[in-house]
Amino acid sequence: MIKWNDELVEVIARRRCVIVIGAGVSKNSTNKDGKRPATWEEFLRDCAKEVRNDECIESLLERRDYLTACEVIKNKLTEDVFITKVQQEYQRAGYTPAKIHEHVYNLDASIVISPNFDSIYDNYASNVSAGSVITKDHTSEDTANYLLGGNVRLILKTHGSANNPQKLIFTRKDYAEARTKYILFYEILKSLALTHTFLFLGCGTDDPDIRTLFEDIQFAHSRIPYHYMTIPTGEVHKDVLDIASNSMRMKFLEYSPSEGHLELTESLAELVMKVEEHRDSQLSETLKW
Questions:
Q1: Contact by Cβ (8 Å): 48, 74
Q2: What was the pLDDT predicted at 130?
Q3: What are the pLDDT digits (tens) for 224-274?
Q4: CB 226 within 8 A of CB 217
Q5: Domain boundaries, the chain
Q6: pLDDT, tens digit (0-9, with 9 covering 90-100), for 131-174
């Protein structure tokens, strides 16, 4: 089980923590046929099967250069075919929420960030909250209006949604264009990273957005608080984690990947209890929120 430290419990209890849910969270969901959402790599490899014997794509995938691989695949398949495949995988498959989505919601964070193209958590949160959760993406012009506090729950879709596939951030060109065209959105993310603690769940250390944002902040503002990322034991070599920790000011919380990463879900259930206890026994008595 993950050993959650007191500092992290404190910031979550005070709603000074941004929860980031990656593909590893969506992987807990299934549809009526038992299918789970594809990761970025799995989706690209599936698309690559339709571009037969392409050594360039295979080489890019082996080097984990998914941005360039996606660009090549999209060009080869044509945009219409590519968009159809995105919607079939992430919009029309009918995935249902899992227990992990409930635990994320019950942490009661003001802001949840999701780079996932699917809407599994978005739909769950909207249903449980009777539609009071607000969802914005990188194209939204009024996101800043919902950062002023109060009782607003906000979901930020940093890469867009399969519901609007023309606006997805999926390829190298998409990233380059988005960082120029939607600069205000990235300034908001930077501000959040400077004022909040981030907890990454089901995310990878090689996500382009994560690395760029937190490396930039670390070297420009070196004395910021640590952020946290859960990661399966053995997935990344310790030496690589040490480098990532120093360059992104990130603490890694390891858990066993056995039984379909069940330990992460169970650990989150424990974190919810710790946060609720802290709110009840500490913050409500002292009123020091």
A1: no
A2: 94
A3: 778 999 999 988 888 888 887 887 888 999 999 888 889 999 999 999 999
A4: no
A5: 6-30+97-286, 40-90
A6: 999 999 999 999 999 987 667 899 999 999 999 988 999 898 99
Beta-strand pair 134-137/111-114: unpaired
d(CA 240, CA 40): 21
- Give the closest residue to 117 by CA, choosing from 26, 8, 217: 26
- Residue 76 — pLDDT band, cuts 50, 70, 90? very high
- How are strands ordered across the β-sheet holding 134-137? 134-137, 154-157, 111-114, 17-21, 197-201, 227-232, 250-255
Q: Which CATH superfamily is domain 6-30+97-286 in?
A: TPP-binding domain (3.40.50.1220)
Contact present, 226 and 11 (Cβ < 8 Å): no
